[in-house]
Design goal:
This protein is of the alpha/beta class. It contains 38 helices and 21 strands. It is 52% helix and 10% strand. A 5-stranded parallel β-sheet has the order 4-5-8-3-9. Strands 14-13-15-16-17 form a 5-stranded mixed β-sheet, sandwiched between helices. The protein has a 4-stranded parallel β-sheet with strand order 19-18-20-21, with helices on one face. Helix 12 packs antiparallel against helix 19, helix 19 crosses helix 22 and helix 20 packs antiparallel against helix 23. 33% of the residues are buried.
Amino acid sequence: MKITAKEKALEALRTLERDGQLATAERVAEKMDVTRQVASHYLTRLLEEGQVKRTGTKPVYWNTVSREEQTDCADAVFSSFIGYAGSQRQAIHQCIAAVKYPPDGLNLLITGDSGVGKSYLAHLIYQYAVREQILAKDAPYLVLNCADYANNPELLSSALFGYTKGAFTGAAGNKEGLIAEADGGYLFLDEVHRLSRENQEKLFLFMDTGRFRPLGENKIWKRSCVRFIFATTEDIDTVFLDTFRRRIQTHVHLGCYSKRPASEKYQMIQMLYQEEAEKVQAPIRIKKEVLGALISAEPKGNIGRIKNIVKQSCAESYCRGSNGEKLEIRLADIAHLMENSDLEKKPVLWNYLEDMTVSCTEEKEKLRSTDMWDKTYVELERILDTCMEENSWSEFSKRIKEWYADVQKAENLDTESSAFRMQYGIFVHVWRDIVERRYGIQMGGEEIRVCFWLWCLSVKTETERGSMAPKRSSIVKRKYPRSWYVAEQFCRSLQELDESSMKSAVPFLTLMLSARIPENVRISGLLAAHGEKTASSIQAVVNHLCGTYILEGIDMPIDTDVEEIVLKAREYIKTQVFGEGLILIVDTGSLSRLYTSVRSFLKGELLVIDNLTTSVALDIGLKIQAGMSFTEIAERAEAGYQISAKYYEGFSKRQHIIISCMSGAGISEKVKEVMETYLAREGIELITMDYRKLKTAIAENQEKFFRNTMLVITTNNLPENFRIPHVNIYDILDEDGAKKLWPYLHEKMEAHDYEKMLGDLLKLFSREGVAGRLQFLNSVVVINEVEAVLKQYESYYHFQMNGKLKLNLYMHLALMLERLLVHREDEEEEEVVDEKERHFYEMSHRFFNQTEEKYNIRVSQYELSLLYELLSPMIEAV
C-alpha cells in the first residue's frame, strides 16, 4: 500500500536522528526529494498530532516525540476520563493536538448529548495545558454558560467583553469582561448555541484579531490572548453562522453512554460508587443485577443521569441504617429510578458479572498506563512481520502460543480485575456463538484464550500504526479472504471494539483461524430466509457437519420482499473473493427476478434455488466442500431436486420454444406433448409458460429473458413490437396454415414429420380434442352450452366468428367452466375504466347467467378480460 507524504516526512526525520544529524526542514526535504515548503507543511501536521516537536528559532530543529513523552503527561491528566485509551482515544488525541499547536493552540468545539462529559473534558484540557507548561501555572480557566443569558443578548455581550461607565442603565463604572479576565488562559463557553448572531459576529472578530471593545467603548481597542473551548448539544450546522463555525478549527464529538463499550461503562459505575464510598466513609457492595441494569441502560441524561442514580441508590441504602457498616445496593434501590425497558433487558454480559465492592479506605483505582500494552503489541507486530518476511504464515499460530505463555507473566497489564474477567466471559460467549456454532470452526480453550489476548492488545493499545500496518492487513486479507471474513463477522459482534481497534484485531484473528478455514473453496454459498433464525440455523447445521465455514446465512423479517433479498446478497458479495461463482438458496421469491438482479453485479456464475431446506443446503455444502465444479452442481440441482433452480439468464440456457396458451397450463402441456414427439431428437427445449407471466415479460420489455428463445407459440396475437418470432397456433388451422409455422421449423425437422405434427395439432384443437380434455363435465353438454353463449355474442354485437376463432373459444370456454367448477376462488374485482369493456362485462354476465346458475359458479373478471381480449377486435370493427 502506498505510503503517505506525511509518513515519508516522519520516516525521513527518524533516519536523520539515527544518523546523528540535526534535522532541519531543508534536510527533511532532501530525504523526501521535495521542496522545503512541502516538507515544512507535513512536519507542521505531525506537530499538530503530537508526533514531533521543534526547538530553536533560526534554524528550527525537528525531533520525533518518544512514546514516553507522548504518554506520561496524557496518562497523568486524562486517565480519569474513562475511555481515553479506548473509545474516546481519537477525541483525546484531537484535544492534545489543539492544545499543542503553536503559537496559541486551536479553538476547540465539544459536541454531544447532555451528560456525556463535555464540561469535565474541557477542564482536563486546561489541566493538560498547564501540566505541559504550555500555560502558566496560574493561567485562568473561566466558565460561562450561555444559557444563563439566552434571553438577554446584550447582557451576555457585556459579560464577555465588559462595559464602560454609562454604557447602559445601571452601568455605574467600568467592568472587565471574561475575555479580558481569561487573558493567557482558557475560556469555556458551555451551551454556546445560545449565542445570538450578533454575539457570534463579535466573537469571531475577536478570534481573528485578538482585539475587542467593551460595551460603550467606540474608540479604543483592547487586546487579550484567549484559548476557547466551546460546548453544545445542538447541530452546529443549524445553530452557528458559517463565519463563526469556520473559526473553530477542532471539533470533538463525545458519544452517548449507551454506545460506550461495556468495559468502560463498568469502570464509570465503579468510579461513581467509589466517590460515594469516600463520602459516606463506608464500603459499598453493588449486586451484579444492579451492575447489569446500569451497564445495559440507555439513559437520556447519559453519564449525568447514571451519576444521579448512583447517588440516589446510595442514599436509600444509607437510610436503611448502615451505622458505618457496609452499604449494599440492590436492584430495588434503582428500579424506580430507571425505565422499565432498561430493567427488562437481560443481555449476555449479566452472566459474567460479579458483585462489586468498593472501599472508602482503598486508593481510587486508576487506569494503568497503556505503555505496557503498547510494548506488548509492538512485540506481537514483530512476530507477524517476521512470519511475513520469511513467508512462514503457518508458523504464526505456533509462535504466538509460545509468546503468549511468556506474556501471561507480564506485570502491569490489569488482567485480574473483574472488568477484565467480564470481557473474557463475553468474548468466549460470542466466540462460541459466532465462530463455533455459526461457522462450524472448533478450537480448544487455550487457543481461544490466545485469541482473546490478541483482541485485548488491539483494543487497549495506543500504538501509532506505522506504514507497514495497512500493507500487513492488505497482505493477510488477500492471502486468507475467507478467514478474514469470519474474523470480521466475529469482531463486529463484539460491542467492545471500535472501528480502529477492529482493523487491528482482524488480521491477527484471521491468522489464528486460517488453519481451520479452507481458502481453496471455489464457490460461495449464501442462504436467505424469512424468520428470526431460519437461515442462520440451517447454516450452523451445515457448517457444523462440514466441520468448517462453507455457507453463510442471512435472516430476514417476515415481510421482507425480493428487493431486500437482493440488497442483502449484494452486501455479502462485496465481502467475498469469488472463484467460480455463487449459489444462492432462498425460501421464496421469483427465480428470474432474483437471478437477473443478483447476476448483474456478480463476477462469476450464479445458481439460484428457491426452496431452502436443511437437506438441500447440506447437499450443496458437501458438494462445494468436495470441490465439485459449478456447472456440475447447477445441472444436478436442476435435475435432482423436486424444486426450481436457475443458473442462467433467460427462460432457458438452451435454444427453446415457448408455448403459452390463454386457456391454461393444461392445454399448453398438451401442445408440448404433440410437438415434443417430433422435436425432442433435435435438441430443442419446449417450455410451457403461464400466459400472465408471458404478458408481463413482454410488457416490461424483458428482452434478456428471450435471449435463447427461437419461437413463441400462443393462442392469441402478441403485440406487433414484440421482436421475438411468434405464431398464433390457430393460424395454422387455416388453409395456408402450413406456411405460418414451417419457416421456423424447416431446419429442425423433415417435411413429412411436419405434416404429421400439424395433423395432431388439428386433432387436438377439434371438438373431439376439446372433449378429450374435459375430465369431469359431459363434453357434449358443455360444448353445446358454449356454442349457445357464443351465438348470443354474435347476435348482440352483429358479427360472425370464423371457424378458427370459434375453435379457440370452444377450447377456452369449455376448460374455463371446468376450472371454475373445480377451483372455487373469490377474486377481488378491480374498477374497469374503459366504458366499452365495462359494458362487455355486464353483457357477458347476462350471456353466462344460465350456465353460472346451473353449475353454481361465477365467471371472474380476469376470465372475462381474457375473453374481451379475444373478441375486442371484432367488436371494434362493427
